[in-house]
Design a protein that fits this description.
442 residues; 3-stranded mixed β-sheet; alpha/beta
Length: 442
């Protein structure tokens, strides 16, 4: 009986399977739907969720792929790598300088040349043409900046769109400097010193030289010519009362002088100096953002004083306990004063040797396209016409396009100019008169 049953079971024909080309699981689902005209709600819900999940995944994948293909909007990572190889731990990290480069009508070419002569990717630049310059000049400067591949890669050159009036003999240049410093602080808080250059100034060292020497100095140092001896300035520049039209008029007019004069203040001591200074970021923040109200009180006083830019910063520094020991009584600017005109005289090729021997970082003033500028480019800066000064960040072949290939901006290549600047600063700090010349009452 067992053998018969087993034989019958073995010889039974196999059951016929449905003839279709679908996988069995999918086939069962399709056949189920065909047989059941009223599918269960649970199955519809699962189907809807599966389709929604697939659509969401597709949208996310497309959005991620499109965002990853968007070009990088920040500065070039080759200029500012996140990781650096440190070859010499004794060399400090280079600082950064915030430059205001300003000019007037006809100075657009001079501003661009000065920008190229002082350019370094670590620095920050704000270019300004006052309202006397046509708007076309301002647009030309902006287009030149945008079209330069180096400036576009570093994203550290900006053009002030709404210009400020700046009368050299009034108080509006002080307003311009404070305005520019506040803009540069908003653009970046990474810079260490603020330098304001007019279109008639020019560097006497490369930026690699300057940054190399400044990297060894405390970042709160201020290079400011100052003196409490007023002399003839008391009657001509401190007691007169003026109204600077650059502070309230949209068009330039003559300076207004009041008939009466005022007495010198007794609440603080006035100091005079030069309109050019190298000021620390901490001091500029003190003037603009500090809780101490003295910088604003002094700003109100100098608003009606002739040539207030040359007096404001020395007076704030020397009346502040926080900063009066950070002042070096030398602004590192080379210039020849003309006593007959009470102003700097124009420099020329006969002054070249004196500039080099001075060890100064900058010189003023130069006439437009004076041949001595070409001499400085060739013998000091090694700058070709229309190009920036080559530095350690330039990796291209020597020539006009050496900086079109760039590397780490923090790599400096100082020249012999750094030695001259070093000797000048060492002499200032080591001759025994450094402290005695700080904010001294005469």
């Amino acid at each position: 009986m067992q053998n018969q049953n087993s034989t019958a079971t073995a010889t039974a024909p196999p059951q016929q399977q449905p003839n279709n080309h679908f996988p069995s699981s999918l086939s069962n689902a399709i056949l189920f739907n065909l047989r059941d005209h009223k599918p269960k709600p649970t199955l519809l819900l699962y189907t809807f969720l599966a389709i929604s999940l697939f659509s969401l995944t597709l949208i996310l994948s497309l959005s991620l792929s499109s965002s990853s293909s968007t070009p990088h909007s920040g500065p070039d990572p080759f200029l500012y790598p996140t990781r650096r190889l440190i070859f010499d731990k004794s060399t400090p990290s280079p600082p950064s300088i915030a430059y205001l480069i300003s000019g007037s009508r006809g100075d657009s070419g001079r501003i661009l040349r000065l920008l190229s002569a002082t350019y370094h990717p670590l620095n920050h630049y704000l270019l300004h043409l006052d309202p006397s310059a046509p708007h076309a000049d301002r647009e030309r400067v902006a287009l030149m900046v945008q079209s330069n591949p180096i400036f576009a890669a570093a994203k550290n050159v900006h053009v002030m769109g709404k210009p400020d009036f700046a009368y050299a003999k009034g108080s509006s240049p002080l307003s311009l400097n404070l305005h520019a410093a506040s803009i540069l602080l908003r653009l970046s808080v990474g810079w260490d010193w603020f330098v304001s250059l007019g279109a008639d100034a020019y560097p006497l060292v490369t930026q690699d030289d300057l940054l190399h020497i400044l990297s060894f100095l405390p970042k709160d140092m201020n290079f400011v010519n100052h003196s409490s001896y007023i002399g003839w300035k008391e009657a001509r520049k401190l007691k007169p009362i003026i109204v600077d039209p650059g502070l309230y008029l949209s068009e330039g007019t003559e300076m207004f002088y009041a008939t009466q004069k005022r007495e010198l203040p007794s609440a603080y001591r006035l100091f005079t100096g030069s309109s050019f200074s190298i000021l620390s970021r901490s001091f500029m923040e003190f003037c603009l953002l500090g809780a101490d109200n003295f910088p604003r009180i002094l700003l109100m006083y100098f608003a009606n004083t002739p040539s207030s830019l040359s007096n404001y910063f020395p007076t704030v520094l020397c009346n502040s306990r926080q900063f009066n020991r950070t002042v070096i009584n030398q602004n590192l600017l080379y210039g020849i004063y003309d006593n007959h005109r009470n102003d700097l005289r124009p420099l020329n090729s006969t002054d070249f040797d004196g500039m080099v021997r001075s060890g100064a970082a900058f010189a003023q003033k130069f006439q437009k396209d004076d041949p001595v500028l070409d001499l400085i480019d060739q013998k000091i800066l090694c700058r070709s016409p229309g190009s920036v000064v080559p530095g350690g960040w330039c990796l291209g072949e020597p020539g006009n396009s050496s900086c079109l290939t760039w590397g780490d901006a923090k790599i400096l290549r100082p020249s012999t100019g750094s030695q001259r600047l070093e000797q000048a600063i060492v002499q200032l700090l080591s001759n025994g008169t450094f402290l005695s010349h700080q904010c001294m009452y005469e």
